[in-house]
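Usage

Read records sequentially. Each one opens with the input sequence:
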Amino acid sequence: MEASRAKKILFVTPPYHCGVVEVAGRWIPLNFVYLAGVAREAGLDAEIYDAMTKDHGYPEIEQRLRASTFDVVATTAITSTINDALKTLQLAKQINPNAVSIIGGVHPTFCYEEVFNTTDAVDYIICGEGETTLKALLMALEKGTDVAEVPGIAFKRDGRVIKTAKRCFRENLDDLPAAWDLLDWSDYKYFVIPNSRLGAISTSRGCDHDCIFCSQQKFWEQSWRGRDPQKVADEIQHLFEIYGVNVFLIADEYPTKDRERWEALLDMVIAKDLPIYLLMETRVPDIIRDREILWKYRKAGVVHIYIGIEATDQETLDFIKKELDVDQSKLALDLIHEHGIITETSFVLGFPDETKKSIEKTLKLAQYYNPDNAHFLAITPWPYADMFNDVKDYIKVHDYAKYNLIDPIIEPKRMSLLQVDVAIVDCYRRFYMKKLPEVFSMKDPFKRDYLMKAMKLIMNSSFIIKKLGKGTLGKVPAMIEEMMCKLS
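and closes with the structure output:
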């Protein structure tokens, strides 16, 4: 007699594309790696289908869903991807009406009632950190026990939305099972470094700061937990040796919070002596704090550091609670450059009091700070962010698909949305035109080639090409065409 088939959970990434995120590489869905691991612990077979990375549209997704004998389908969403996430679940329900559908992530966590009011295709929402809750939910469904006893979920019963008790964050991040084998590793590349395989690791979770525009500090409730440095270093070695990963995104919101732990991690990675590259994000004050050990960053493989500057005047920094002094940013960038590490930062435009003059000031200061890569982003009021109520009267766009930091959402008092849109692209054009001669003259061949490749990717990106056709910019300016010729 044939043994009964284990139930299968299919994790699907929403097929959302906005331009910037995918310019540099194809990124692994690290959250699904851990979620698939706990699903296996719950006794299910697991499958990861990264539709976004594969650039699959709904016809391909439908084909894949029909070929998969899934019993549970799960996805995740931030605000900009929520529409596509729900559409994916709707498609899955059409194909298999008996399947259980689950969604998690930042947007559903805070907007669970809105999600249930939008569609009937969602059975359960995971609110907050997902792994422990997903495992408990799957086990409750298998055993037939009341899901209302599972902390950390929301669901509908008898037409009413029910949110269960809050679940505490997981104490130990080192015992999370990771289903690395479920990834199609050939899909993941870092375009800036030739012949690379791109992976990601999580060394900590959370952030204890309170920037009012940020979703992460709210999601993690301003908490922070770090992993054992030795286990992180061992994981890097495992991914390098087993899957050929040589470029690692450190996916943490704030990996450097604990100076002692962070330096121990650098030392342990250095001891592994692996030919790898590390990409990371941290805060300006931590770079200044670590000025004496920045050489360890580079020796461990750190080649690219993103630091959030966001604004170039103290008044705006204070408004968004960045806890940063404008003069610190220039120092931090200079310190990183001294060690041959590429810098990246962003400048947020389009606040209610924004003017053409203030944007010009931001551009000039961005050029003065002189990061290697600069992004000029549109301030985006997540519906659950602390700043939402402060700016809601200026919100003119309500399509969540536009909440991607690229498309202006807020219309300033003295500018139109189109003017902000045009100004953002003009900042990109002028910043990189001024940056280009410096890049050509760099003596470090790795950094020069890295930046030339990155600049070419940015200027060839779909969002730049699309936006250059808007407003007063008309078609691609001759200067951009000249720049692209030099970079080719």
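Summary fields computed downstream for this record:
- Residues 21 and 27 are 9 Å apart (CA to CA).
- The two ends are 64 Å apart (CA to CA).
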